[in-house]
Task: structure prediction
Amino acid sequence: MEEQFAVRLEKLKKLQQLGVAPYPYRFEVTRRFAEIIALYREQDAEALKQAAAAVRCAGRILAIRSMGKSVFMHLFDGEEKLQVYVRKDEVSELDFAVNDLLDIGDIIGVQGTIFKTRTGELSVLVKELTFLAKSFHPLPEKWHGLQDKEVRFRQRYLDMIVNPGAMEVFRKRSRLIQAVRRFFHERGYVEVETPMMHPIPGGASARPFVTHHNALDIDLFLRVAPELYLKRLLVGGMEKVFEINRNFRNEGISLMHNPEFTMIEFYELYRDFGDYMELSEQLLLALSAELLPDAILRWQDKEIPLAPPFPRLKYMDAISEKSGLPVEQLWDETALQAHIRGLFPGEPLPPTFGKMLELLFDHYVEKSLVAPTFVTYFPKAISPLSKVSRLDERETERFELYIAGMEIANGFSELNDPLEQRRRFEAQVQDREKGDDEAQRIDNGFLQALEHGMAPAAGEGIGIDRLVMLFTGAASIKDVILFPLLRPRE
RNA sequence: GGCCCCUUAGCUCAAUUGGCAGAGCAAUUGACUCUUAAUCAAUAGGUUGAUGGUUCGAUUCCAUCAGGGGUCACCA
Result:
């Protein structure tokens, strides 16, 4: 460890003695490896030899196979690998001396001509070799790659260098977010950024992180959702609006939860939750067209076709069907209590009616929703920002989209009656007093905005990380977040 | 936070019942001008996550701690 560092430092000093700049400023690259492969892969060895196409390219050394006066190396440019071939009689004496001081992990640039080896591998015959950067640490082993999850997360760069799939996941993530943006821009939505630091945390049922602003001497909360700010923009007349940004929730970490995660929230005036279920289907189709060859999600051992329209299943019906309890008993708090006592003997009852329903939903329903399914008409008690259903005043026009047993999206017809909204907030305050510390708080600024009049609107939030999991097959949210939260070392 | 599992060379992994801690890759030295997990010869590399205990003797058994993973809870 210390020893390998020292050896490599010594090599860097020798390079300097040869007059080589240890940290040069730039290198002209004419082609990425992917371009070189695309351009020349199909040509036969003889044609390539005749053409002797000149390229300049650069990458990190992943493997060195030296036969003394003839050296093969594999370079990696973050995307593709390419073999380069250094022959003593093809390069200057200095370049060959430099070549002799290279280690796996170093970064070099080469100028040379394209050819194919005897075994048919596309390669660059090096004419000039430029040292670009030294690596003082050995790379993880080439054959097994880097297995240690902790190192992969803490030193993500190593994961990206030696595990080809890692880089691919984050490229896909980038393409997915780009496709989401395009989808909404094409439909005339305006992208905005609203505060990450909130005086009152709101828009979702979750425990917030607290921080402090010194000059104002006030506590602030990292946002749990942008919802209440985006709806202020609806009041202001922004007809179609979306935001892609981070939310922060001071909660547990699991395969599906990271304390900071990326959400898109979008809103449109004059629409309702039915419109937004359809829009969600269109969005998933658009992402599928962009990222999947055949409109089938492959997640873990499951194959999940994305074929709208997705079934709609009422929240209470879903619990009833799986639990065997008649729907009317689910509305009866006493009956609920009895059922939960039977299900989890000895455990404390959830503090509120809403929490009991959520417990049963999570227990009976959530994991079973593998094929894309809209769960609809959530009870009013757990939906403080949604409009009451036109069909049953105990329910709201709210839906959640489930895929692979994961909640992916949450949308509703937005409650725009300020008097009703105030009553809902007050009910939340009562829940908080009963012991539900994720219950929402009264946001008077938001209520004041509603009092100025907000047109009917639909709104929805989609967890981007979980979408990326679905589209990349990742089992853990940590696999799709570059630097997931871990306990700091030392 | 509860329970279970893991932590051995830079990396991937071994080590019989508690009996001198090993291999492959990487590294070092040497040979080799079409190799590709290059090959061949030699060399070096360790406070077995930390601390304490049991024992003649601990990588192995016990306790505590640290980090990670899994699971349940919390959580949308």
